[in-house]
Amino acid sequence: MPSVERKPRKGDRIVVSIERLDAKGQGIGHVDWPVYGRFPVAVRHAPPGATLLVEVVRRRSSKVEARHIEWLDHGSEFVDPLCKHYGTCGGCAFQNLKYERQLVELKGLVAEILNARNVLGDVQVEPVIGMDDPRWYRNKMDFTFGNRRWIEAGADSDGPQGFALGMHVPFRHDKVMDVNECYIAFPEAQNIVNSARSLAKEMGLEPWNLREHVGLLRYLVLRKGFHSGEVLAYLVTSAEAADRVDPFAAALIQAHPEITTLVQGINELPAGVAVGHVDRVLHGPGVIHESMGGVTFELSPKSFFQTNTLQAERLVEVVREEVGSDGHKVVYDLYCGTGLLGLAVTPEDGELIGFEREASSVADARAYAERLGMGHATFVEGDVLERLEEGVAGRTKADVVIVDPPRVGLHPKVLPGIAALAAPKLVYVSCSIKNAARDLIELKARGYRLDRVRPLDLFPHTPHVEVVLTLTLENSTGA
Ligand SMILES: C[S@@+](CC[C@H](N)C(=O)[O-])C[C@H]1O[C@@H](n2cnc3c(N)ncnc32)[C@H](O)[C@@H]1O
Hints:
The protein is of the alpha/beta class. It contains 9 helices and 21 strands. Helix 2 (188-202) crosses helix 3 (242-255). Residues 304, 306, 335-338, 340-341, 355-358, 361, 383-385, 404, 406, 431 line the site of S-adenosylmethionine.
């Protein structure tokens, strides 16, 4: 701490004890400073319980951001990170924190965010439903090719630096680090990525140049059906280039017979998205299968599907419990994707009305409903905002409404339409509790009471938390 009485500034070194995590997964502690007073300090990769020497990186109005210089005490919640890339790769925010404590921190974050909006009242946030084993949980992982390899601290810098296959380095979007091990992707993914990297280098295939937008190989997306064991490899390239891509694909499949299908996606546009405008199936059927909630889903490279199969099964169970079995017949599933939640909770003699923007997901949802013999399932294609009113017209009153919107939450203009459904029960599945908290204010104003808050950890080692919020209509004229 400086002897002069001034505000902390960049380069100052201070000692901080970490108390909790914030919504970005950073450790937060407090420091007392002469005259300036007590202020919060945010440090990446710093677990609660640890004491560290840190260096101020920047001062913001609400906190000081600092970087780790030296551990002074690891504290009792620290564990050795699983992965050698932890700290450089942006995938995991707090792999060095005991898993049980991660769940406690997530619960605290949910309560803090709901309380800040004044929507929790007397309701207790329930313990976060975690995984028995929080490793190898992702059924889908996107790996990026790049021509500027990031050299990790302490790593061998002798290898070629013009080729990488792995993850973008946080804050350096032109650089990609080779990922040689990963404990959150499904187990087979690692060897496939390592082979793809060596084969592409051996065969002289150029990686995408992230600055100049030239080169052939852009992404390798790997996806697995946990129940079927099938593996899909989706290779996104900037051109068809069959003379180079086909031999590469054949060599990868020969090295990894566990790849049951390989699809090439061609995307020549500069924007960095792992999706082809044209797809070519180079091996197998072009799809894999996954079962959940009594439905077998057929997944193409572009189908939306929950990323953590085991926890998504628990999510379906929680939604089923919240919907209950007390005679509900008419279920509205807004933002339904391929119908996972609605199909799982609607009784055989019930009626399901789903709303979804993506045409391919709607087509899939219709096919699954037919396969399940659900005669009374309708899926309305289009933006919920535009289609809700007309999709509801002339239909039976809703018993239950499920909403599972993307991170942005509900569009403010959708709220009156939801309220007009006047469903006695509303189950809101949220992947952004911050935005759900904002929507709860509006739903409460329209007569809904919050009954339960049940978080689930779908993304261990990250601050993302899925939350099932159950609401009941108190005043049916509230709309
Ligand atoms: C979080 S996902 C939920 C999917 C589904 N409930 C599941 O668990 O598989 C959100 C879905 O909302 C769809 N979506 C996003 N914005 C939409 C909108 N404005 N209108 C209709 N659907 C939308 C997305 O395509 C996506 O399928």
